[in-house]
């Protein structure tokens, strides 16, 4: 990819806006289509694009495999512990009203934001894991031997 | 949800969700910490907590009554409801107990059978499978059953595939199971879809009240057929059992002991729940399906699978086929459509669970010492490993149904139920197929005690960490053979609860 100057420059310029757009989709999920699943995929796209253009090693030095595995688990934990927090506040599991007893609707907003963040983290991790799993595979027969 | 109406919940109110939540939290925690020793400690403490929760739940409902828990505070039928009654509390306890007892056993077993780098993932998959099975049983929402079914199934495929270090065929067994299991789950979810289309709700109690009020139209009948076939695949009802022998044979021993005692049992529970609570037992279409399809298939399974088991040369594979035959007994109990038959089925589900767990654990110990479970390799082990071999004899007696063991009690009730209905041929069939069990168990005893051991084997008894869990299971089969009260009362109230459906508990 060393010769593809345009691809490299455009990619570098795009990565920031892609991440920003992911965060927009994430936080605007309350009011318009979007949320953790879509935002997670878009977030992962930023890193996958980097990997495709600059190579797998470059991507993995930014976003190492071990981090991918931890993120997948972390997101699930964020989601689950949001539910545990509502338990401790004396409400049912995942009853977000607990976060603002005077305004249950506000509590719902906080709760949704928290679990959607968990979804974002896990989905980003899973998308990266899928990409790495396929990209890391070495072909059994090298291209010349075909 | 209004401010005034809210009364703070205490821990005791949350038990129905905690029974699923505790092992579920353990799984990502294990990945996050990434340490092998911590993984085991977390998994074991989570599953031990689950046992206590399951006991507390059973104590609350074992004489009838229902606990209903609303996820997110959304009242059913809109919200997801967890619903604990006598029928699922006993299954929850079985799954939690087996899952906990297998864990100390797993430490040595997986060190031998699974690559070290996969150990933390093993515990993660184990905890997820555990969560899935508990969730399938605890939930009162039809779609939630499917979600948990998938959680347990996907992690099961991973667990089975981990046997690949010892035998590469574990991979094709896991793949085969993946295909069959996915077809089963798809059929199940198509059935749920039809139910939703027909009734407009996903809450099981709500579906039940809709069907009893409005009767079943063609959509609901189709739903019933899809659900029966889908769950039938998971249960391994006779012609749908093809995935089971390979999956059980090539999975790591700890996984097989866990799955054999819990996975098919949870699926049977779901089948029971749909047959008797969601659809009404007097619903004619269902009666025809049970009497005309399920009963003959169950009888065929009892004989054909037992016969295949007789001719096996691998102990583990023999036990897998015997499991298919034992599922036949459970289905016969269900097909008798009486309280006695159903409680016989539930007791047998429980007793067969502990018996098979003991036997598969024993196989794992033999594999640890002799490298494989082929009869030729384990010959003469009776003298070398007296504790393990004697446990196999005792658990084998329970498999046959000799008086004084758990297996006897459940078969006795099944025979009684058949006679109650005046179905003598079925009572005779149960006894006759038990004779086949005598043959296959005797073959193992003969191999263990009357053959000369093969050369070049490690000749010593197994480590205590494996012996103790196995003996707990073996002694449990004897215990439940004498103390029949506990299991029987629970099974009877479970059967009553199932047959009366959701109407008894008053719905919502």
Low-confidence residue ranges of chain A: none
Order of helices and strands of chain A: HHHHH
- Number of E-state strands of chain A: 0
Structural class of chain B: mainly alpha
Radius of gyration of chain B: 22 Å
Count of alpha/pi helices of chain A: 5
The count of strands of chain B amounts to 2
Largest sheet of chain B: 2 strands, antiparallel
Calculate the mean pLDDT score of chain B and round it: 88
Rg of chain A is 19 Å
Shape of chain B: globular
Strand content of chain B: under 5%
State mean pLDDT of chain A (0 to 100 scale).
88
Helix content of chain B: over 70%
How many independent structural domains of chain B?
1
Principal-axes geometry of chain A comes out as elongated
Report strand % of chain A.
Answer: under 5%
Can you give keywords for this protein?
heterodimer; A: 146 residues; mainly alpha; 0% strand; elongated; B: 508 residues; two-stranded antiparallel sheet; 20 helices; 2 strands; 76% helix; disordered C terminus
Descriptive account of the structure:
The complex is a heterodimer of chains A (146) and B (508). Chain A is mainly α. Chain A has one domain. In chain A, 72% of the residues lie in helices and 0% in strands. In chain A, helix 2 packs across helix 3 and helix 4 runs antiparallel to helix 5. The longest helix of chain A is centred in the C-terminal third of the chain and has 32 residues. The radius of gyration of chain A is 19 Å and the shape is elongated. Chain A starts with a helix and ends in an 11-residue tail after the last helix. The relative contact order of chain A is 0.15. The mean pLDDT of chain A is 88. With 508 residues, chain B is mostly helical. Chain B has one domain. Chain B is 76% helix and 2% strand. Chain B contains 20 helices and 2 strands. A two-stranded antiparallel ribbon of chain B has the order 1-2. In chain B, helix 11 packs antiparallel against helix 12 and helix 16 runs parallel beside helix 19. The longest helix of chain B is centred in the C-terminal third of the chain and has 32 residues. The two termini of chain B are 17 Å apart. The C terminus of chain B is likely disordered. At the A-B interface, helix 4 of A face helix 1 of B.
């Amino acid at each position: 990819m060393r010769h593809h100057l345009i691809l490299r420059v455009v990619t570098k310029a795009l990565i920031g806006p892609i991440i920003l757009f992911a965060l927009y989709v994430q936080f605007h999920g309350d009011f318009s289509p979007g949320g953790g699943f879509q935002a997670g995929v878009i977030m992962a796209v930023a890193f996958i694009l980097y990997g495709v253009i600059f190579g797998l090693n470059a991507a993995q030095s930014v976003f190492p495999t071990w981090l991918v595995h931890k993120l997948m688990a972390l997101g699930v934990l964020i989601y689950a512990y949001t539910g545990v927090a509502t338990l401790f506040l004396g409400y049912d599991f995942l009853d977000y009203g607990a976060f603002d007893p005077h305004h249950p609707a506000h509590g719902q907003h906080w709760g949704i934001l928290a679990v959607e963040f968990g979804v974002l983290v896990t989905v980003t991790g899973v998308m990266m894991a899928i990409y790495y799993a396929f990209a890391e595979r070495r072909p059994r027969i090298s291209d010349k031997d075909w | 949800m209004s401010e005034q109406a809210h009364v703070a919940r205490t821990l005791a109110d949350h038990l129905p969700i905690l029974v699923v939540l505790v092992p579920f939290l353990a799984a990502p925690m294990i990945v996050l910490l990434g340490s092998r020793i911590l993984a085991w400690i977390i998994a074991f403490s989570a599953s031990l907590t689950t046992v206590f929760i399951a006991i507390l739940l059973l104590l609350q409902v074992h004489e009838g009554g229902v606990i209903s828990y609303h996820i997110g505070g959304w009242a059913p039928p809109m919200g997801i409801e967890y619903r604990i009654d006598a029928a699922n509390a006993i299954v929850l306890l079985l799954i939690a107990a087996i899952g906990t007892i297998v864990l100390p056993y797993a430490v040595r077993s997986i060190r031998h059978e699974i690559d070290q780098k996969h150990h933390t993932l093993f515990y993660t998959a184990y905890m997820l499978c555990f969560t899935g099975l508990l969730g399938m049983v605890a939930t009162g929402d039809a779609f939630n059953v499917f979600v948990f079914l998938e959680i347990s199934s996907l992690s099961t495929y991973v667990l089975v595939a981990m046997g690949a270090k010892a035998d590469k065929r574990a991979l094709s067994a896991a793949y085969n199971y993946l295909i069959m299991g996915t077809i089963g789950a798809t059929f199940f979810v198509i059935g749920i879809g039809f139910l939703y289309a027909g009734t407009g709700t996903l809450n099981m109690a709500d579906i039940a009240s809709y069907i009893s009020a409005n009767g079943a139209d063609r959509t609901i009948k189709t739903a019933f057929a899809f659900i029966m076939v889908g769950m039938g695949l998971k249960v391994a009802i006779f012609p749908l059992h093809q995935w089971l022998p390979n999956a059980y044979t090539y999975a790591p021993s700890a996984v097989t002991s866990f799955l054999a005692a819990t996975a098919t049992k949870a699926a049977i529970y779901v089948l029971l729940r749909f047959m008797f609570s969601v659809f009404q037992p007097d619903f004619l279409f269902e009666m025809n399906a049970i009497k005309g399809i399920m009963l003959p298939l169950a009888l065929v399974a009892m004989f054909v699978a037992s016969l295949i088991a007789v001719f096996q040369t691998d102990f583990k594979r023999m036990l897998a086929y015997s499991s298919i035959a034992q599922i036949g007994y459970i289905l016969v109990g269900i097909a008798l459509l009486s309280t006695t038959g159903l409680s016989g089925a539930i007791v047998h589900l429980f007793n067969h669970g502990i018996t098979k767990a003991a036997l598969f654990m024993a196989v794992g110990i033999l594999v640890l010492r002799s490298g494989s479970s082929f009869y030729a390799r384990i010959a003469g082990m009776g003298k070398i490993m007296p504790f393990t071999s004697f446990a196999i004899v005792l658990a084998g007696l329970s498999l046959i149904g000799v008086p004084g063991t758990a297996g006897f009690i459940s078969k006795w009730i099944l025979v009684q139920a058949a006679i109650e209905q005046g179905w003598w041929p079925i009572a005779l069939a149960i006894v006759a197929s038990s004779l086949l069990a005598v043959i296959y168990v005797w073959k193992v005893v003969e191999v263990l005690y009357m053959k000369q051991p093969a050369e070049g084997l490690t000749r010593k008894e197994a480590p205590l960490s494996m012996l103790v869990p196995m003996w707990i299971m073996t002694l449990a089969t004897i215990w439940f053979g004498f103390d029949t009260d506990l299991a029987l009362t629970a099974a009877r109230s479970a059967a009553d609860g199932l047959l009366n459906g959701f109407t008894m508990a008053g719905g919502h």
